[in-house]
Amino acid sequence: MLQIVVTLAIYMALVIPVGIYMYHIAAKKKTFADPVFNRVDNGIYKLCRINREGMNWKQYALHLLMTNAVMVFAGYLILRLQGLLFLNPNGIEGMESTLSFNTIISFMTNTNLQHYSGESGLSYLSQTLVIIFMMFTSAASGYAACMAFSRGFAGGRKDVGNFYEDMIRITTRILIPVSIIGGLLLIWQGVPENFIPNLTIETIEGKFQDLAMGPVAALEIIKHLGTNGGGFFGANSTTPFENPTILSDMIELYSMMLLPGACVITFGKMIHAKKQKEKNKNATMAVAKKAVFGSQGRTIFAAMAVLFLVGLTICFVSESAGNPILEQAGLNQDMGSMEGKEVRFGIAQSALFTTTTTSFTTGTVNNMHDTLTPLGGMVPLLHMMLNCVFGGKGVGLMNMIMYVILAVFLCGLMIGRTPEYLGKKIEGREMKLAALVLIVHPLLILGFSALAVVTSAGLEGITNPGFHGLTQVLYEYSSSAANNGSGFEGLADNTYFWNITAGLAMFFGRYIAIVAQLAIAGSMLAKRKMNETIGTLRTDNTIFVLILVFVVYIFAALTFFPALALGPIAEHLTLWMS
Amino acid sequence: MKNFASYLKRALILTLILLLCCSVIYPLALTGLGQLLFPKQANGNLIEVDGKAVGSELVGQDFTGDQYFQGRISSVNYNTYTEEEKEDGTYGGVSSGSFNYAPTNEDLKARVEEDVAKFKERYKEATGDEFTGEIPADLLTASGSGLDPHISPKSAEIQIPIIVSNSGLTEEQVNEIIKENTEHKILGIFGEEKVNVLKCNIAIAKAMGEI
Question: Do residues B152 and A332 lie in contact, with contact meaning Cβ atoms separated by under 8 Å?
Fold first, then answer.
């Protein structure tokens, strides 16, 4: 208990300076590291003749899609041909076509769902040139989209920024430097970083043991920092070589939590700065009020935090209660439900990691989610269904703003006023786009799940009997559509059916949302600002935090409750009633 | 069409430059720095006995000898194998993972019941007494990775009588070995108390003069 509280307290202390640094990068303000990075970036702009003119939302979205498409084709080729290429000391063969399709979509969309096992499915060349590469670029793409989105909402300019400039600034100023520092910390804790083939050693009993090697740390840090989640090894961050100690666990935890949380601060500060600028326009003495969050950002952060803490509590309590069936079988359950967990993390850090990885849509796991207790497993599932509890790099904030739009719309109906957000009217076009984003997500999850449970190809993947089988299916598609990537790993998912359907869920889950959200930002940017009156619904106070939390839960309850009732809730009742 | 070509060209250039930064410069820089600053850790934290690697202190191993501590249940048998097992295909190559049994899965219950019975039998064989204590949850559940190097101190404690009778060491000696290889919470807050099974077993083998 105590360690969860302390861990989260340290997080709060860290996220604020990171958020401020990110704001400076997004808004092109001065930072302490400019002398170095300006040179690097300018060199790159010159070398590639990147022109840095502003783009409207359509151009921005098209450039993003085109770049992602090019990367997908390049990566697909490498995966198919890895058996023939170099840097393959363990002699791994080319990847099968539907599996390559699934893998490449999975990594480009920041999902990192893995239907292969890293030890036996990828060469070191693929691990660096495809996996690590996409971990950087998919994260940068999501975050770039979020920066454009925030600029649109903050307003006060004609364009939403330049996509290429954003990509390069994010990569050189945040992702690579933090990855090198974090990567070294992980190596210090015992994560291997080399290019030697797997080792075979002789044990003291005269048997043999294989130890998997490779550039693990390089992948490990960006996997979390970019909220990617795909492991070097099959069992992801449960394996000692990916996550050897409690310190490495906390480094990984923080590196996935920091940037999505910081995105909210960046957003808040952008809005705040715009407001200050307007206020000071007429005043002769311009005294800028400093704010850590910005009041609009604070509301959103608070709502996300409430959702997060509710989920964490349910998960922790449920896992601590243990498994009554094993108690009957003669195994003491005082330690909690240890099946699928590691001793060095125990229940507390496992529950925290599980809730975090699905809230921040990373998808890395430090325990096996398939073996979680029913309600403990429902929390990650629910948070991926909500897809807005901090969320992945950038996109979580954008999803939460969709709920904000829904919330002001509902409130607007109740008080009989045109809904407004940040001084701009929310009209038909924005509502339609927001509704599209909010409907596509459940449609992908429930639609594909329904397809899987009525076809034999889908049913063949289920490996656990009873209600848990349905949970496995729901989890797979929630994880895909939310671009999370964790799995109920028991699911036998490396088949044509699962590779293709999950691939499609990931693809639509990512790009429909991003394009629609950029369109909303573009249309908000084009609107005239309204003056605030006494009747304006305030979106920066505690009441709005509560409204937002309720809107999210009500929306989820209406959409997903029937499915959850048949899966985890039914399993919980059978477990404790029998 | 001209527009398309210009989009494509810029996308290609960005892809190439990011490939260079993220997939070539970055991993090479990190590998270089890692090998320079932390050579032991970067190469797997190997434990050597008489100059020969016998395992990694981070990765658990499967032990069959009755004089040794048993680790947790592993779905991949800790990637440990004998020559016969490799030849007949029982061992299919390096991997990781767990059984992925749901808490309500009958197979899980059956596996645990079988292992509880096995443990009690081992205990009785070694000491002649019935086992009356409680078996902690970690000892007979499968770890997530299948490679967990640790067990809880309680799980080590209940194995002491078995080891004492099979190894010929005294209870004090075994207790001392456990104590030396117990890792504590950081600052008394973070993590769990845990015992490293491989290190304990190496210490037992040394005390018995086997290595």
Answer: no
| Element housing B110 (H / E) | helix B106-127
In b/e form, how buried is each residue of B138-168, taking b as 16+ CB within 10 angstroms?
bbbbbbbbbbbbbbbbbbbbbbbbbbbbbbe
pLDDT tens-digit map of B45-87: 999 999 999 999 999 999 999 999 999 999 999 999 999 988 8
User: Per the structure block, which two tokens stand in for A381?
Assistant: 């599932």
Q: Does A461 touch chain B (CB under 8 A)?
A: no
| Residue A325 backbone dihedrals phi, psi, to 5 degrees | -65, -40
Q: Which residues fall within 8 angstroms of residue A24, CB to CB, at 6 or more apart? A: A30, A31
For residues B211 and A20, give the distance between their C-alpha atoms in angstroms, rounded to a whole number: 57
Bridge partner list, A201: A209
Q: To the nearest 10°, report the CA torsion of A444, A445, A447, A450.
A: 160
A343, A375, A571, A576: best to mutate for the B interface, most B CBs within 10 A: A343
Amino acid at B185: K
Closest CA to A506 of A448, A575, A424, A577: A448
> Which H or E run includes A334?
none
Q: Answer whether A313 touches B (CB < 8 Å).
A: no
**pLDDT on residue A291:** 65
Phi, then psi, of A331 in degrees rounded to 5: -115, 120
**Contact between B152 and B194 (Cβ < 8 Å):** yes
d(CA B153, CA B136): 10
Contact B104, A222 (CB under 8 A): no
- The DSSP bridge pattern shows strands B182-183 and A424-425 to be unpaired
CB atoms within 10 A of CB A206: 8
Token pair for residue B159? 């194995």
Written as six digits, the tokens of A336 are: 């909690």
Using a CB–CB cutoff of 8 Å, tell me whether B168 touches chain A: no
If you average pLDDT over residues A321-338, what whole number do you get? Answer: 94
Domain ranges of chain B: 1-43, 46-207
CA distance B13 to A487: 35
Roughly what angle, to the nearest 10 degrees, separates helices A163-170 and A57-81?
50
Following CA atoms A228, B191, A234, A383 in sequence, which dihedral angle do they give, to the nearest 10 degrees? -50
Here the ipTM equals: 0.94
Q: pLDDT for A425-483, tens place per residue?
A: 999 999 999 999 999 999 999 999 999 999 999 999 999 999 999 999 999 999 999 99
| DSSP conformational letter for A127 | I
Radius of gyration of chain A (CA): 23
* Cα A343 → chain centroid: 26
CB atoms within 10 A of CB A576: 14
Take residue B206 and report the two structure tokens written for it: 């040394």
Q: Which secondary-structure segment (H or E) carries B81? A: strand B80-81
| Residues 89-128, chain B, touching A (beta carbon < 8 A) | 93-106, 108-109, 112-113, 116
| Concatenated DSSP letters of A173-231 | IIIHHHHHHHHHHHHHHT-----PPPEEEE-TTS-EEEE--SSHHHHHHHHHHTT----
User: Is B105 in contact with A467 (Cβ distance < 8 A)?
Assistant: no
Nearest CB among A62, A210, A345 relative to B7 is that of: A62
Contacts 24+ apart (CB under 8 A), B18-21: B18/A133, B18/A136, B18/A137, B18/A140, B18/A167, B18/A171, B19/A74, B19/A129, B19/A133, B21/A136, B21/A171, B21/A172, B21/A176
Quick check: B108 and A339 CB within 8 A? yes
A201 to A146, A234, B55: CA distances (angstroms): 48, 21, 6
Residue A299 has pLDDT above 80, yes or no: yes
What's the pLDDT at A285? 45
State the pLDDT at residue A46: 86
